[in-house]
Amino acid sequence: MSAILMDGKMVSQKIREGVKTRAAAVKAKGVIPCLAVVLVGDDSASLSYVNSKEKALTEAGMESRDIRLPSSTNEAELFSIVADLNKDEKVHGILVQSPLPKHIDEEKTINEIDPQKDVDCFHPLSVGNMILCKPGFLPCTPHGVLVLLKEYKVPISGAHAVVVGRSNIVGRPIAHLLSRRDNNATVTLCHTGTRSLADYTKEADILIVAARSPGFIKPEMVKEGAAVIDVGINRVPDSSFKKGYRVCGDVDPTVAEKAGFYTPVPGGVGPMTIAMLLQNVVEAAEKKVK
Ligand code: GUN
Asked: From ligand 1's centre to the CA of 98, what distance in Å?
């Protein structure tokens, strides 16, 4: 049996069309939805991510306020820029791309962002609201994974979902969202301290992998027919590629022969993250015109 490919590119395109319509409605009321995208330093992967986000914003008829800062920027300078963006009525969302240079405290930086503009859902208040199932933005990658599962009608209620990776951006929030009453999955959160990881992954009806390790999940670790969601984006040196590297996920591609559903890398979860970000930005702008 060959798995069904979950086409994040196609699903995200549909969502982006919906966002474009919503953005046009906001613009008709005199407000242009705007996301400020702050990048500190010149990390090439981060630069490529923010470029994709900015291009997607423009395509959806929204404004992207691109702020590029040298890696020599200090914490006080960055906080002052964030404070200005917080005050700026024309800016509806603020995204500070991580990772930040080592001399800038990421946690403190996130705390400086007005939660009303926290479209990443990284601020402690946003995270608290999410965990308590209160209204507010949902984090983009976890939300994108959920939408993808629902789009392909993967049964979630009652399913055993195993999440590999406990990051604040992906693993922990996806575990929370899946266990919400309205999603109703039973969740196991695995991490680097998990003994006999395969004992857990083999039990998963839904396996979500954000392990930051290329090709980490092998077919023998997966249950036949499981939905396998690969959140990994790894650059692996490969001289046969023009850029000198290829992009691959945390799941070995041969898992596709055993799984029921799988997400490709690239073209699976990545585009969904961007689509959900755009959705949060238009939602932030809608609140301003209501
Ligand atoms: N770095 C990697 N993913 C993300 C993301 O979704 N948001 C931000 N701000 N930084 C990231």
From this structure: 5
